[in-house]
Specification:
- This protein has 2 helices and 4 strands; from the N terminus they run ααββββ.
- The strands form 2 sheets. The chain has a two-stranded antiparallel sheet.
- With about 70 residues, it is an alpha+beta fold.
- It is elongated.
- The chain has 2 domains: about 1-40, no CATH class; about 45-73, no CATH class.
- Helices cover about 20% and strands about 25% of the residues.
- It has helices spanning about 1-5, 15-20, and strands at about 25-30, 30-35, 50-55, 60.
- A hairpin with a 4-residue loop joins strand 3 and strand 4 (about 60).
């Protein structure tokens, strides 16, 4: 959406792709995006957190630290 806001609704797919490929520091749900360092995804392994569903809480809970590292007690 940010690309369309900056480039306009008539932006071509190539223009939107180029915009995304040069996007750095845009903060999303998993942290800052950098499509140059992490092509196609924007976030690297440090943005990965393993979660599991907890039926008692009716919510997801983290079971790993960023990057999939074990949780510290």
């Amino acid at each position: 959406m940010d690309g369309l806001k900056k480039l306009g609704l008539n932006a071509t797919p190539t223009q939107l792709r180029d915009y995304a490929l040069n996007l750095k520091g845009y903060t999303g749900i998993y942290g800052p995006f950098d499509f140059n360092a992490n092509p196609g995804r924007g976030v690297g392994i440090d943005g990965v957190i393993i979660q599991r569903w907890d039926p008692a809480k009716s919510n997801f809970v983290a079971v790993s630290a960023p990057g999939g590292a074990p949780m510290r007690p």
